[in-house]
Design a protein that fits this description.
Length: about 260
């Protein structure tokens, strides 16, 4: 990661949990974990402060968090959301071949300069039959819609408004660094194309929830939010794909 990247993510780290440790994030975790098999080891690429890692810890996995920002990792460790932390680019993180039952790339692919190589790396880390989980913000996840969604989910108005302002500020600060490198559509294309050309079996692909559904069902049945199958109007696109059991580490893709 460049020096400007380290500065940007280090600064973002101090506001990250305030902005994202919410029912919105918890609902994405619910969607992911209810589709996962039981397993032992997960690697969370671009783990940040460990919000995504905590989903898997919550269902019994030991989680190795990988992140290129020391500040993000420090917070993940301090919060106890990762069992082990590796300070590294998501590509070439030095973890052993076939060490993981699950690999997460949650809100990483849109900010990484080489998303295809991140997926190649994930594939090398997975045991045969292991599961890759990719989540990214969809085109409809505008800051104003996220604000409305959070208010509808029950976040106090003042807190949601402060998170809204913090998202605006982070977006502006990240502009010169080009923190967000790929559009939602571009990430979706990379993921879909990569999965199709690497023989992964898709367990589920779609959206995590439709924003319009928040008001109606969130409080009574939060689990129902995860049943939407269309990516339209949903804040997060997601794919869970299983590595074929017959694919050995030696056969796996290697990026140029
Ligand atoms: C949007 S945050 C996502 C954090 C977490 N996965 C979540 O969903 O809460 C993106 C994370 O990716 C990390 N990151 C950005 N570029 C990276 C790279 N090249 N290698 C590893 N981590 C990177 C950032 O430091 C940041 O913690």
């Amino acid at each position: 990661m460049s020096e400007s990247g380290t500065r940007f993510w280090g600064m973002y780290a101090s506001a990250y949990d305030f902005i994202w440790d919410s029912l919105l994030t918890a609902t994405v975790g619910l969607y992911v974990t209810k589709l996962l098999p039981s397993g032992q080891t997960a690697v969370d690429l671009g783990c940040g402060t460990g919000l995504s890692s905590a989903w898997l810890q919550g269902v019994g996995y030991q989680v190795i968090g990988v992140d290129a920002s020391p500040e993000m990792l420090r917070r993940a460790l301090r919060a106890g959301r990762v069992d082990r932390a590796v300070l590294s680019d998501a590509v070439g993180c030095g973890l052993g071949l076939e060490c993981a039952d699950v690999v997460l790339a949650v809100n990483l692919l849109q900010v990484h300069s080489r998303p295809g190589e991140v997926l190649d790396q994930a594939q090398r880390l997975l045991k045969p039959g292991g599961v890759l989980v990719c989540v990214w913000p969809s085109a409809s996840a505008s800051i104003s819609r996220l604000f409305l969604a959070e208010v509808n989910l029950g976040r106090p108005w003042l807190s949601a408004a402060s998170a809204f302002l913090a998202r605006v500020a982070i977006g502006l600060i990240g502009l010169p660094y080009r923190a967000r490198r790929l559009s939602s559509e571009a990430v979706e294309n990379v993921v879909d194309h990569w999965i199709a050309s690497n023989g992964m079996d898709v367990i589920d692909a779609g959206s995590v929830m439709a924003i319009e559904d928040f008001r109606v069902i969130s409080r009574a049945h939060p689990e129902a939010l995860t049943d939407g199958k269309t990516r339209q109007n949903a804040p997060f696109g997601a794919v869970l794909a299983r590595l074929s059991v017959s694919q050995s580490g030696a056969d796996r893709v290697s990026s140029p």
